[in-house]
Amino acid sequence: MEQITSVNNQLIKSLAKLKQKKYREQTGTYMIEGFHLIEEALKAKLSYVYLLGTEDALERAEEELNVELSAKNVFLINTAITRNLTSTKNSQSIFMVLKMTQPKNYSFNFGKWVLLDNLSDPGNVGTIIRTADAAGFDGVILSLESVDLYNPKTQRAMQGSQFHLNLIVKPLSEVINELKLNSIPVYASLLDKNAKQLPEFEHVAQLGLVIGNEAHGVSEEVANICDEKLYIPIKGQAESLNAAVAAGIMIYYFA
C-alpha cells in the first residue's frame, strides 16, 4: 500500500477534479465516498480503480469489508487530502473511484421503468432511484438534460441503489417509442386536473412512468407521445407535490 502525503500529488489533483462533470466525462470515472456506498459497490462485485483512505478508515475497510490493503490501487492518505477530496461536511475519510458503466444499447422490451424528464435536483433524482429500487422496478432512465447521474449529491442520495438497478441516460422519446412498440404503456405525470386520476388506473405488469422537471413538469413533446396523462389528486391547499414525493406515490401504486 502506497502512502500519499501531499495534496499536490498528481493523482490527488486529478481525483479532486472528479467533483466536476467535465472531468468525470473525460476520464470515464467517478468517485464515491463513505463506508455504506463503498460496501454496496463491493457487494455488487464492482472492480474499483482506486481506493483511498486514512489509516483508521482503511483498517476498518479491511476488517469490515475484506479489502486487501496490499493491493497496488489502495492508497493511504492524510486528513489534509481527505478535506481536498471530500464532498461532504463530515467525511468518513474513505474514497473509491469507479468506472462509469453506462450501457450503450438496451432493449426496453419488458419491465417497470421510471423515466425522468429533465429533473434538475440531485436529491430528487437520487431519492426517486432509491424508491424505484425499493419498489422492485427494473430501472430508471434519465433524459440527457437531467442532472448528472454521477454528481456526488446524486450518488449519496441513491444510498447504494445505483448498484441494484438499470440506470440509463438516453433521449426519452426513443425510450418511450421502444416501450410502446413492445406494448408497454407509458404514463406521464402532469399537474392537470383534467388528466386521468391515479386511482382510476388499473395495475399493470409492465409500464413506463414519466416524472417531469421540478419547475416545469413533463415537457409537451414527451407528454404528447405518452399513452396516458396521470394526475395525483390534491385534497388540501398545496399547489403541487415535490417531484420525489409524487414519484414515490406513483411508483408504489404500480409496484
Automatic annotation (TrEMBL):
Tell me which GO cellular component terms the UniProt record holds: cytoplasm
Every copy of the RNA 2-O ribose methyltransferase substrate binding domain together lies at 31-104
Q: Which UniProt keywords apply?
A: Methyltransferase, Transferase
> One Pfam family for this entry, by name?
SpoU_methylase
Q: Which InterPro entries match?
A: Alpha/beta_knot_MTases, MRM3-like_sub_bind, Ribosomal_eL30-like_sf, rRNA_Methyltransferase, SpoU_MeTrfase, SpoU_subst-bd, tRNA_m1G_MTases_N
GO-annotated biological processes: methylation; RNA processing
Tell me a Gene Ontology molecular-function term this record carries: RNA binding
* PANTHER family, A to Z: RRNA METHYLTRANSFERASE 3, RRNA METHYLTRANSFERASE 3, MITOCHONDRIAL
The text of the family note is: Belongs to the class IV-like SAM-binding methyltransferase superfamily. RNA methyltransferase TrmH family.
Annotated protein name in UniProt? rRNA methylase
Species of origin reads Lactobacillus apis
